[in-house]
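Inverse folding, one chain.
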C-alpha cells in the first residue's frame, strides 16, 4: 500500500518507475539524469518518505525544493490532537483530612493518559509545584486508623486501583509518585502492620513491589506480594470479572511460571521480530552502508532495553501554547537556580571554586541565600567531594557551618556530605550505585559535586567527546530522576600563568555546551587587591538571572558579592 502523501510526492517527479524496494526517478536537481538516479521509499514504521540521489551530493532539502515541495511533504499528515481533558482528581490529605495536594489525571484525543500535581496556594488558587509538601500516602487517615486497629492494609500502584479496592470496603493506599517512588515516610506509617502488596503485572511493577516488600519487612510488617492472574492491574482484573481470592502470590520474590507464561511475551517472539527486521533491512538499496549499520544497531539494542524508548511528546505549537500549565519558576536558590538546572563553575587551582561550592551547599541547607545572605526556604543539599580527605574538609568548612548556624534560622541543616577523595567512575555501574545510594538517602534538591574530572576515568579507545557525552547523559538521568539541580566544579585548562588561563572547562567541549549556566571565576587584576574575582559566563546563559558578576573573599563566609547582573523582568 502506498501512502497518499507518497503518491503526491511522486507526482512531482519525472521518470518514476516502481521497484522492489520503492521507486526510481530522475533527480529534479539534475539536468543530465537520463538514467534515474533518485531512489524513493517509505519507512514502514513512520510512513516518512526516504529519498537518495546516488549520483551527486544533492541533499534532501535541495531535492524537495527542486521538485517544488517543502520538506513537510515527506511526512504523513499529522492528526490534530484534542486538548487534554481532566477526567479524575485524586486528593492527598494529611492525617486530619486537610488537603495537601492533588493528583490530576488527563487524557488526550487518543486516550493517552498523563498526570499533573498541584497544591493550594493559600489564596484560593493552585500552585503546580509541590516543592517541600510532604508526599504522603493516598487515603492517609483511613490507613493510619487501620494500622492502629490491626486491619490489613492493601498497597497498590496507582490511585485508580486504590479507589477500586476502597469501593469494596478495603483499606487501600498508594504513593503519589508511581513505581520506584516509595519513601521512608510511607514505611513509617505502615510500621508493624499487616500489608498486602498488589503488584502491577509487568516487570517495573514487580520490581517496585519487591523494593516495597523489603522496606516494610525491615519495619516489622507482615507483608506479601500478589499479582493478578489476568490483566495488568487490579482494576483491569476485576473489570474482567476476576475475584480477589484468585490473586497469585509471588513466591521467593519470583512470579509463578504460569503467570509469566500468560502475561509476558515469549523471549523468542522478540528475537523472531528482530530477525525479520534485520532481513528486510539488508535488502534495502535506498540506504547507505552506514545507515544500515545504524538501523541494525538500534534493532539489536531494542532487545536489551529495560523499558520502551521514550519518544517524547510531539505536539503542534498552537496546542502546546493553548494547553497552558504551570510555567512559574521552581526555585532551589531564589532568583538564581531552578530545580533540574545545571551549573558548572570553572576556575584555576586555588581560586576558591570548592569553597564557593561548600558555601552554596551549606548555606542553602541552613535556609540562607548563599549570595545575598537573606533568609530563604531550606534546601536539601548533598555535597559529593571527590578530591579532599575528611580532615581538610572539616578544617576548611567548620567556620562556614558555625557562621550559618549562628544566623539562627535552623538548628537542623538539611545538608549532607559524601566524601570520596579517590573519586568516582560514573562510567561504571558500581560507582553509579554508590552515588545513587547517597542520593536516595539524602533526597537532595541540590547536588553539589566536584571536581568533575574525578567523576570518571577515561577507559581509552574512545574519544574524549564520547566519554564526556556518556557521563553527561548519566548526570542528566540523575537530575531528571531525582528532580535535583546540579552544581558542578571543574578545572580550567592550563596556561602560561595563573592569570593567563582560558576560562572554559578543561577537556571535552561537551562541558562547555551542556550546562544551563557556565560560570568562570578569575582574579580581577584591576581591583588593586589580591582577593577580588570577576564572575563571568563561558557560555551564554539560557535564562536571565541575577548571578554575581564580581565577588571578593568574605569575612563571615568564603565569598561575598560586590556586584550582581542586572535583569529586567
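Residues assigned per position:
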Amino acid at each position: 500500500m502506498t501512502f497518499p502523501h507518497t503518491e503526491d510526492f511522486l507526482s512531482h517527479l519525472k521518470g518514476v518507475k516502481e521497484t522492489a524496494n520503492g521507486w526510481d526517478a530522475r533527480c529534479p536537481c539534475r539536468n543530465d539524469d537520463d538514467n534515474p538516479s533518485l531512489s524513493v521509499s517509505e519507512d514502514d514504521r513512520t510512513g516518512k518518505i526516504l529519498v537518495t540521489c546516488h549520483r551527486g551530493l544533492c541533499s534532501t532539502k535541495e531535492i524537495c525544493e527542486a521538485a517544488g515541495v517543502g520538506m513537510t511533504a515527506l511526512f504523513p499528515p499529522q492528526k490534530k490532537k484534542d486538548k487534554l481533558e481532566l477526567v479524575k482528581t485524586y486528593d492527598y490529605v494529611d492525617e486530619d483530612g486537610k488537603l495537601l495536594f492533588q493528583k490530576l489525571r488527563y487524557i488526550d484525543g487518543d486516550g493517552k493518559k498523563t498526570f499533573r500535581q498541584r497544591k493550594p496556594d493559600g489564596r484560593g488558587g493552585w500552585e503546580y509545584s509541590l516543592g517541600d509538601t510532604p508526599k504522603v500516602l493516598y487515603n492517609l487517615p483511613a490507613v493510619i486508623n487501620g494500622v492502629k486497629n490491626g486491619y490489613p492494609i492493601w498497597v497498590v500502584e496507582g490511585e485508580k486501583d486504590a479507589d477500586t479496592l476502597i469501593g469494596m470496603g478495603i483499606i487501600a493506599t498508594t504513593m503519589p509518585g508511581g513505581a520506584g517512588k516509595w519513601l521512608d515516610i510511607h514505611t513509617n506509617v505502615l510500621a508493624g502492620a499487616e500489608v498486602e502488596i498488589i503488584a502491577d503485572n509487568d516487570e517495573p511493577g514487580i520490581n517496585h513491589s519487591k523494593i516495597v516488600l523489603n522496606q516494610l519487612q525491615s519495619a516489622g510488617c507482615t507483608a506479601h506480594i500478589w499479582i493478578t492472574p489476568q490483566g495488568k492491574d487490579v482494576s483491569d482484573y476485576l473489570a474482567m470479572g476476576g475475584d480477589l481470592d484468585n490473586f497469585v502470590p509471588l513466591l521467593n520474590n519470583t512470579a509463578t511460571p504460569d503467570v509469566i507464561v500468560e502475561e509476558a511475551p515469549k523471549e523468542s517472539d522478540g528475537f523472531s521480530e528482530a530477525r525479520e527486521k534485520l532481513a528486510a533491512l539488508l535488502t534495502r538499496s535506498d540506504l547507505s552502508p552506514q545507515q544500515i549499520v545504524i538501523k541494525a544497531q538500534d534493532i539489536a539494542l531494542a532487545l536489551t532495553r529495560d523499558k520502551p524508548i521514550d519518544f517524547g511528546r510531539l505536539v503542534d505549537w498552537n496546542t502546546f501554547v493553548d494547553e497552558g500549565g504551570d510555567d512559574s519558576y521552581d526555585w532551589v536558590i531564589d532568583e538564581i537556580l531552578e530545580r533540574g538546572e545545571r551549573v558548572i563553575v570553572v576556575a584555576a587551582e586555588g581560586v576558591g571554586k570548592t569553597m564557593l561550592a561548600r558555601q552554596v551547599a551549606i548555606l542553602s541547607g541552613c535556609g540562607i541565600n548563599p549570595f545575598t545572605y537573606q533568609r530563604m526556604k531550606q534546601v536539601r543539599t548533598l555535597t559529593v567531594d571527590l578530591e579532599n580527605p575528611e580532615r581538610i574538609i572539616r578544617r576548611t568548612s567548620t567556620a562556614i557551618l558555625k557562621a550559618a548556624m549562628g544566623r539562627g534560622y535552623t538548628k537542623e541543616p538539611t545538608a549532607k556530605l559524601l566524601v570520596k577523595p579517590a573519586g568516582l567512575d560514573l562510567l561504571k555501574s558500581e560507582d553509579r550505585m554508590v552515588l545513587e545510594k547517597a542520593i536516595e538517602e539524602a533526597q537532595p534538591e541540590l547536588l553539589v559535586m566536584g571536581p568533575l574530572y574525578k567523576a570518571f576515568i577515561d577507559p581509552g579507545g574512545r574519544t574524549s567527546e564520547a566519554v564526556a557525552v556518556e557521563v553527561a547523559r548519566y548526570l542528566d538521568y540523575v537530575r531528571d530522576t531525582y528532580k535535583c539541580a546540579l552544581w558542578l566544579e571543574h578545572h580550567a585548562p592550563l596556561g602560561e600563568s595563573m592569570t593567563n588561563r582560558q576560562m572554559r572547562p578543561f577537556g571535552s567541549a561537551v562541558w562547555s555546551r551542556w550546562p544551563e549556566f557556565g560560570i568562570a571565576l578569575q582574579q580581577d587584576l584591576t581591583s588593586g587587591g589580591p582577593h577580588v574575582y570577576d564572575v563571568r559566563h563561558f557560555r551564554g546563559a539560557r535564562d536571565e538571572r541575577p548571578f554575581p558578576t564580581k565577588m571578593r573573599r568574605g569575612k563571615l563566609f568564603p565569598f561575598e558579592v560586590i556586584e550582581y547582573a542586572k535583569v529586567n523582568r
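The chain has 16 helices and 24 strands. The chain has a mean pLDDT of 83.
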